[in-house]
Design brief:
The protein is of the alpha+beta class. The chain has 3 helices and 3 strands, in the order βββααα. Pfam families: PqqD.
């Protein structure tokens, strides 16, 4: 499965992470640094499993916890209709 943001969704860095902006609706979603890393890795082509490894290494958390976080973020951005 590839993770691609819809064409009308942009990702912008902020002081505390990033935001995803749906340019059609004007809605936006603030992301902390962990969520930002997850979204960036997924849209760069990493698998959820590899993304969890990256997050676990960067933030020194257990890989099972990291994989749960990755799954949660995927679910949230998919439910918001931000993925193609």
């Amino acid at each position: 499965m590839s993770f691609v943001l819809k064409k009308h969704v942009s990702l912008a860095e902020t002081e505390f992470g990033a935001v995803l902006l749906d340019q059609r609706s004007g809605r936006y979603w603030e992301m902390n640094p962990t969520a930002t890393l997850i979204v960036r890795a997924l849209v760069a082509g990493e698998t959820p499993e590899r993304t969890a490894e990256i997050v676990a290494g960067k933030f020194e958390v257990d890989e099972d916890r990291s994989l749960a976080d990755v799954a949660s973020i995927i679910g949230k951005i998919a439910a918001a209709g931000l993925l193609s």
